[in-house]
Amino acid sequence: MSELQKEFDELLQSYKSEKARMREIEDHFDRHRLQEGGAWLAKCDGILIQREEDAKTRRFGDAATMIQSVLRSHLLRKELKEKGGKKGKKGKGKGKKARAKASIDRVDTQVCVCVCVCLSVCLSVL
Predict the structure, then answer these.
(1) CA-to-CA distance for 81 and 86, rounded, in angstroms?
(2) What's the pLDDT score for residue 72?
(3) Residues 92-114: what's their mean pLDDT?
């Protein structure tokens, strides 16, 4: 019986030492995983920030292109109006000058709306 007790004590001691060694190894690998995870998170954060900057730049570029296009077409219409442009069919009712004025007013309103929309898009990016 004493031999069994002695063997049991030896096995218990061996178990405790192996358990302590196992705990050290697990702690080591936990620290290693945390370091890898931190590096991976930093890399993902960098990618996310870069994508946000690219999206912001793209939106500014798109808004600038839209504003330039609208203003260019507005100036072209204004220039054509001053030159006389095409002479179309006379309509019934209003005179030619009244129709041209209404057309320019409508274009001016469209330009203002488009510029306001573009600026609001740009400001929402900030």
Answers:
(1) 9
(2) 85
(3) 54
